[in-house]
Amino acid sequence: MPMDDGPLTYAEFLARVPKVELHCHFPGTVFPATAIELAEKNGVELPSMDPDELYRYDSITDFLAVLQAVSKTLVEPDDFARVAYETLADGVHTGNLRYREMFFNPDYHYPQGLSYDEIVGGIGDGIRRAHGEFGVRCNLIAAISRFHGPEAGVALVETVLAHPHDLVVGIGMDDLTPEGKEAPEIFVDAYALANENGLNVTAHVGEIDGSTPRDVLIALDVLGCDRIDHGYRILGDPEVVRRARDERVHFTTCPHSSVWLYGFTFEEHPIRQMFLQGLRISLNTDDPPFFATDLGKEFVIGAAQMGFAPEHVAQLCLNAVDACWLPEPEKERLREDFCREIDALTARLT
Ligand code: ADE
Ligand code: ZN
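# adenine complex -> structure
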């Protein structure tokens, strides 16, 4: 490790800049060795019991199948606490994570006999432990799984409203419909209920091959999102890009998962184009061990290979602060801390 006031290489700078992460899925954070241990403890089958083989797939459908299988290895509230603690510790150690908003899918876990309160309680225990040891903070986004359909989406929002919890700060939507589509419009009722009740909302759209700028527009106009997860396909329509830029829509982008799943290269990545066209974006891990990444690598490899300079990286980190769902006074404190620390790190670049 370099001295704490000595010169820094660019890679050290990228790992050390303070970070807020807005796009990371709880079941997608399970380390393969942890998944295998939990599977053995709880008597659950996995597609492979070899940690080097488990996370292998070459399409989003195959990836989501492994993600579902891994989520079934979590059976006791303590299993949830362990996974939450391990992933937050990893974010702190690899990437100087300060605050994360993390998706969780209640519908994945009901078949294992857990209640909504047990799921949130278990994850919350792990969050508290990580906060006590490292000072990192984390809130949760209850995610509608498209696999479970629009009615389950409404039921999820009803559950969130009926069980208010300090940690749960909004609603998201991930996975694909059984037909393999994003089809954001079919979830309008769930989002209407969330919006009527003042919940924060975001959605995965404009991610997969075949999705279009129209999917992003639907998330903005029909679902009422002011934050979009992924959104790469927006680049197909300059008018929609202009609209998102003017309205300061934030895009939580994920370098490694999109390279892995969609064949983008870091050198010519839509994330870079989105940034150059003035969109407000952040860099995030999505499902870190599932895509052989971590918060540090998203910057040390992703940001560096996408050609982001130190001032761009500072902008990306501050964009994430601006777009997070903390109360304004807490955001302001975070912003001040980030500006001070980023300035100090920048001054040490060789
Ligand atoms: N769930 C976890 N990661 C996802 C992704 N990249 N797209 C859709 N659903 C997901
Ligand atoms: Zn995602």
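# post-check
The chain is about 50% helix and 15% strand.
The mean pLDDT is 97.
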